[in-house]
Design a protein that fits this description.
Elements (H helix, E strand, L loop, with lengths): L3 H13 L8 H15 L1 H8 L2 E8 L4 E8 L4
């Protein structure tokens, strides 16, 4: 089930705009995406066979995140 508190937090962050965002919010967005993917069969089927690595380089902050997605596990 999608965590409604997390969903509200992400919606509030989006409404606040990019200037108010923290790089760590990115991980929360990925967590929300993961939860939605676990509940939505179409999205789940689309992601089942994917094996991808994503690099996000945030240039205005001293932070980098690596995210590896394998078998719907983050």
């Amino acid at each position: 089930m999608v965590d409604q508190a997390l969903l509200k937090e992400i919606k509030d962050k989006i409404d606040a705009g990019a200037a108010a965002a923290d790089p760590k919010d990115t991980l929360k967005v990925y967590e929300l995406f993961k939860q939605v993917a676990e509940e939505n069969e179409d999205l789940k089927e689309e992601l089942e066979d994917m094996d991808i690595t994503i690099q996000m380089n945030i240039t205005d902050k001293d932070a980098k995140f690596w995210l590896k997605v394998l078998s719907l596990k983050v």
